[in-house]
Design a protein that fits this description.
It is built from one helix and four strands; from the N terminus they run E-E-E-H-E. By secondary structure, it is mostly beta strands. The protein has one domain.
């Protein structure tokens, strides 16, 4: 999908509210290495505890490209 080292991604937790899935921002990732077309190694740059808590509890997480990073 064109992911490359240095790309930034926002991490959101998916939360059901009144039968609708909403997203709450919990952190940010930076891509360190792309191993193959389906695997990228990332470092959490913000929200380490929040991301870990959600992951360990089995809550839904989604990563979305942070397009603002293109302008830094």
């Amino acid at each position: 999908m064109g992911v490359k080292p240095g790309d930034l991604f926002m991490v959101y937790e998916e939360i059901p509210v009144g039968g609708v899935i909403t997203r709450q921002k919990v952190g940010k990732l930076r891509v360190n290495d792309v191993s193959n077309p389906t695997v990228a190694k990332c470092k959490i740059t913000k929200g380490n505890d929040e991301i870990a808590d959600a992951f360990l509890a089995g809550r839904g997480l989604i990563c979305v490209s942070d397009s603002k990073a293109l302008f830094y």
